Amino acid sequence: MTLENISNTKVFGGWLKQFNHQSTSTQCKMRFAVYLPPQAEVHKVPVLYWLSGLTCTDENVMQKSGIQRVAAELGIAIVAPDTSPRGDNVADDEHGAYDFGIGAGFYLNATQAPFDNHYKMYDYVVDELPALIEANFPVTSQKSISGHSMGGHGAITIGLKNPQAYQSISAFSPICNPMNCPWGQKAFVGYLGDNQQDWLEYDSCELMKVTQANTPMLVDQGSEDNFLAEQLKPQSLIDAAQSRQYPLTLRMQQGYDHSYFFISSFIEEHLKFHAKYLIKS
Description:
Elements: E1 4-11, E2 14-22, E3 29-36, E4 45-51, H1 59-64, H2 67-74, E5 77-81, H3 121-136, E6 139-147, H4 150-161, E7 169-172, H5 182-192, H6 204-210, E8 217-222, H7 228-232, H8 234-243, E9 248-253, H9 260-278
Parallel strand pairs: 4-5, 4-6, 7-8, 8-9
Antiparallel strand pairs: 1-2, 2-3, 3-5
Helix pairs in contact: 2-9, 6-8
């Protein structure tokens, strides 16, 4: 598969690179960013996949979080895909809403027309992108997954459904119970249809209740997040984890909101959490 290198920036001794490629999963051109720490010039390194939130692209975490400094220190590559398929032929919300369609792929495989042609973000993140990364960059098959908001939902659901693939899971401000919040209900009806049985496989709380996985999970949530009560519902995830003694650490961080200021404040702790499972002494 041909990769088109569209940017290279040196940062903290490593390289931040952006690439385009034609995706077989989404049937359109996709862009991703990869940060290769300095250690990658000497040996293969493990990977943390970062999934961003509504309206975001691969650039948000790379430009706003300060993630490269810690990744360079620990020797972890960071891969950030886009949040949805894009292009002139990709279906979008007819009203141009920010929370559905382009920029809002919800990391699932759509089954409803016209979105089922391109919105296969689950397959892209779980299968296609890791295979592409491992074939073209100096990385090992050891990987973990993290994300923010819609991307936190994606990280948790993907991690729970693929425990053999990810060493650890973390999230900032995840949409914990999308079946029971406006963002999730709108997305699930549009992408998956009205049958709520089909929604169960993309809801973190429902997956938590039945999973056989025990993948370590860290979640941070700001107490002053504007979306906390209506959209995010972290207590539902706590209750689901307690119902089967899942190894979840969920921390309410006092005074923090939903922004990348919050993420940048705790990203170092998240990377060090992942490093415990990615880097074997």
